[in-house]
């Protein structure tokens, strides 16, 4: 019969070879006490195989035949085994039976509850721990602080921070890093910055936490600034740093800086890291350089589902849904197993492009693969709603076994997008619970359907309901203020933004636009000048603001600064600067910019650019040249182009050309009132009253309705709407 030492060696060897069944057979057959370390090997083997019943058997054997095994350590291992096998009930039972749980026992049970998504239970355990003699260590604090970060519980986080100071952990780098992360995720970047500045031994994790914090909170300029500071210091960036900073380049749309970072990655020899290369692919694709993203993807020796998803997402971002769908099929042929994230990328793509055909095919794929999770179902609701199939979305919604707030929000938003605000409001009132997204849907829905007063009213109701607005709220409500010229309300919202620490890039751009459209170009200019690295949207908004207020030369000057800033102008930039040139009579500059669109930037002019050029040439009095320009257009001119020329004919009293243009417009838009009204005005200004009456009679007999004009006046913090023919205001 073998002795205990021989048994221990054999069992340990079998455990290392992952032969758990054979090891257990030897243990139970001879029923001899084995070495303490052997029990640990057995339990670790159970953890690896998630074999709970065998673990119980081992622990029972130890209690029956051994009297010398340190029970606390063994119980800790058992807690660890149960926790990693997902059995929190038995893990807690073992913990409760411990006579003297040590710091490892507390850390394991707290970490187990945190890992399995029970944050409140983990916090309660931490409170119980503080009533014992066991003092928390750096692991305990890191675990609890990261838990506060994951649920964005600032109050708990502040209390734990105080405890770390009292326990002397205010300089512990791991604890400080988790505190920085917690404050960042709770929207307190100023506090995170203060802690970071006081750290005597900040490491790469500290720097990464600051970069990620700024980027996630919408302060992407700050994120890039911190990255640059890091490059100048002694702490070397790692793969995680690049994975943190590249998304900031995406949000800023600064391809130049992204390319510089790419060069750093090459120098560091990190192009073999799948996470880093995936982040590069994502950056290039979302910065409108999908070809470079494809080259990187093709060169990858190792690809995972995230890499494929990044490429698909890139094609989606660039509006190439057909290519994204093709790539999706290639991914399946390559044997890469799609995940819920793949469908979560594809479905919004179909929704964005209003591609019902692709969306229906994706739905069929989902049914085959069995990925009909709550997240995917909600994405399907969104896709069908945005593709105009609101009834299909409603049927899916009705069949859902469980509906969360996201499901309700998808339907509320869907009805609003389809112009059915009555049904949207009905669902809004019916909702069991609402969140900030719900309120945002109502604000955006009413604003996009032209009911800007109602949108502002919902914003006020949201405030009264105690719901804290977020970045999306401000990005939705500011355009409503801009559209109505509600300057005072816009300023009040600006103050709320400052108080809420929501001055992200999107919100700052919306503020610049609001101030410009409300007549305060000076305030818009101040906000723009405070931006260290303005993105293309900021440039476009400011150029448009100058153009709107007649500062054509300033708009042209700003456009020329943009050209030398490292950020390339896009098609909207050219619309803004051409609009400025047309309203300022800057024909030479306008023609120059129009020509350099395709010659210097490879941008094909759209119908909007042609309309700007028609307006530019027409306003300058070159009417026949304008007509020739329209005739030579590579695409068929639409009604907007001809309306623009008709407006110019009226300004220059060119009767014959005006009549010719109107005949074309009658064919294109026979029920549109504007051409008739303009022709009537041309006749009236030429003193041709008989013809004027004929046109007006034609409008009346054809039952063509002119949309009544509407304006708003703000006074005493109230907004009053005045429409033609109303009798609401004396």
What can you see in these coordinates?
By secondary structure, this protein is mostly helical. The chain has a domain at 495-670: Tetratricopeptide repeat domain (Serine Threonine Protein Phosphatase 5, Tetratricopeptide repeat), CATH 1.25.40. It is built from 42 helices and two strands. It has a two-stranded antiparallel ribbon. A hairpin with a 2-residue loop joins strand 1 and strand 2 (718-723).
Topology:
Layout: H1 4-16, H2 20-30, H3 36-49, H4 52-65, H5 71-84, H6 88-97, H7 103-115, H8 119-129, H9 138-150, H10 154-166, H11 173-185, H12 189-198, H13 204-216, H14 220-232, H15 239-252, H16 255-267, H17 274-286, H18 290-299, H19 305-317, H20 321-333, H21 340-352, H22 356-369, H23 374-386, H24 390-399, H25 405-417, H26 421-430, H27 436-448, H28 452-464, H29 471-484, H30 487-500, H31 505-517, H32 521-529, H33 536-548, H34 552-563, H35 571-584, H36 587-601, H37 607-619, H38 623-631, H39 639-651, H40 655-668, H41 673-685, H42 689-701, E1 710-715, E2 718-723
Antiparallel strand pairs: 1-2
Name the features:
730 residues, single chain, Serine Threonine Protein Phosphatase 5, Tetratricopeptide repeat, two-stranded antiparallel ribbon, mainly alpha, elongated
Instruction: Please bin the fraction of helical residues.
Output: over 70%
Task: Count the DSSP helices.
Answer: 42
Low-pLDDT regions:
61-70
Rg from alpha-carbon coordinates? 33 Å
- Here the CATH topology of the domain at 495-670 equals Serine Threonine Protein Phosphatase 5, Tetratricopeptide repeat
């Amino acid at each position: 019969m073998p002795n205990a030492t021989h048994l221990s060696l054999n069992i340990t060897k079998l455990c290392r070879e992952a032969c758990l069944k054979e090891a257990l057979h030897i243990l139970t057959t001879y029923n001899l006490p084995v070495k303490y370390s052997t029990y640990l090997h057995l339990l670790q083997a159970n953890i690896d195989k998630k074999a709970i019943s065998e673990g119980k058997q081992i622990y029972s054997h130890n209690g029956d035949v051994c009297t010398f095994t340190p029970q606390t350590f063994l119980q800790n291992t058992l807690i660890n085994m149960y926790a990693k096998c997902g059995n929190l009930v038995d893990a807690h039972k073992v913990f409760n039976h411990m006579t003297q749980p040590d710091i490892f026992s507390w850390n394991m049970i707290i970490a187990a509850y945190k890992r399995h998504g029970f944050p409140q239970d983990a916090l309660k355990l931490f409170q119980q721990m503080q009533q014992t003699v066991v003092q928390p260590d750096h692991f305990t604090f890191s675990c609890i602080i990261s838990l506060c970060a994951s649920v964005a519980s600032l109050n708990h986080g502040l209390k734990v921070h105080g405890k770390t100071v009292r326990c002397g952990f205010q300089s512990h780098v791991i604890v400080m890093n988790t505190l920085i992360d917690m404050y960042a995720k709770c929207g307190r970047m100023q506090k995170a910055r203060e802690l970071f500045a006081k750290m005597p031994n900040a490491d790469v994790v500290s720097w990464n936490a600051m970069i990620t914090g700024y980027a996630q909170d919408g302060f992407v300029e700050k994120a890039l600034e911190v990255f640059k500071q890091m490059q100048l210091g002694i702490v070397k960036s790692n793969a995680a740093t690049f994975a943190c900073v590249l998304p900031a380049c995406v949000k800023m749309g600064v391809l130049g800086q992204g390319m510089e970072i790419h060069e750093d990655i090459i120098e560091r020899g990190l192009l073999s890291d799948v996470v880093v290369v995936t982040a590069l692919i994502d950056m290039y694709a979302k910065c409108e350089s999908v070809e470079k993203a494809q080259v990187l993807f093709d060169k990858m020796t190792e690809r995972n589902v995230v890499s494929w998803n990044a490429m698909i997402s890139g094609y989606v971002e660039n509006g190439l849904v057909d290519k994204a769908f093709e790539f999706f099929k290639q991914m399946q042929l390559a044997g890469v197993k799609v995940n819920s994230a793949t469908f979560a990328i594809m479905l919004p793509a179909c929704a964005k492009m209003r591609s019902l055909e692709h969306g229906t095919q994706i739905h069929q794929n989902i049914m085959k693969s069995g990925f009909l999770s709550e997240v995917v179902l909600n994405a399907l609701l969104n896709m069908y709603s945005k593709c105009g199939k609101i009834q299909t979305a409603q049927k899916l919604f009705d069949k859902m076994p469980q509906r969360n707030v996201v499901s309700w929000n998808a339907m509320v938003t869907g009805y609003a997008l389809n112009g059915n605000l009555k049904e949207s409001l009905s669902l809004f009132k019916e909702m069991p619970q609402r969140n900030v997204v719900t309120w945002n849907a109502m604000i955006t829905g009413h604003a996009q359907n032209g009911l800007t007063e109602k949108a502002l009213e919902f914003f006020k109701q949201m405030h009264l309901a105690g719901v804290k607005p977020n970045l999306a709220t401000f990005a939705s409500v500011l355009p409503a203020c801009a559209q109505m010229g509600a300057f005072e309300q816009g300023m009040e919202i600006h103050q709320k933004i400052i108080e809420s620490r929501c001055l992200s890039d999107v919100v700052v751009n919306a503020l610049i636009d609001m101030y410009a459209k409300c007549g305060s170009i000076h305030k818009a200019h101040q906000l723009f000048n405070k931006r260290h690295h303005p993105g293309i949207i900021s440039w476009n908004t400011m150029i448009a603001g100058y153009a709107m207020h007649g500062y054509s030369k300033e708009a042209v000057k700003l456009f020329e600064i943009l050209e030398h800033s490292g950020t390339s102008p896009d098609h909207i930039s050219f619309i803004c600067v051409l609009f400025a040139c047309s309203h300022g009579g800057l024909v030479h500059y306008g023609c120059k910019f129009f020509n350099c669109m395709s010659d210097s930037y490879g941008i094909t002019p759209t119908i909007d650019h042609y309309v700007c050029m028609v307006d530019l040439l027409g306003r300058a009095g070159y009417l026949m040249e304008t007509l020739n320009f329209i005739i030579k257009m590579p695409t068929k001119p639409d009604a907007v182009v001809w309306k623009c020329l008709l407006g110019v004919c009226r300004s220059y009293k060119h009767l014959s050309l005006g009549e010719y243009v109107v005949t074309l417009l009658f064919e294109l838009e026979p029920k549109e009132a504007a051409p008739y009204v303009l022709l009537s005005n041309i006749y009236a200004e030429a003193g041709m009253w008989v013809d004027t009456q004929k046109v007006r009679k034609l409008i009346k007999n054809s039952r063509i309705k002119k949309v009544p004009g509407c304006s708003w006046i703000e006074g005493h913090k109230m907004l009053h709407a005045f429409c033609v023919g109303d009798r609401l205001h004396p």
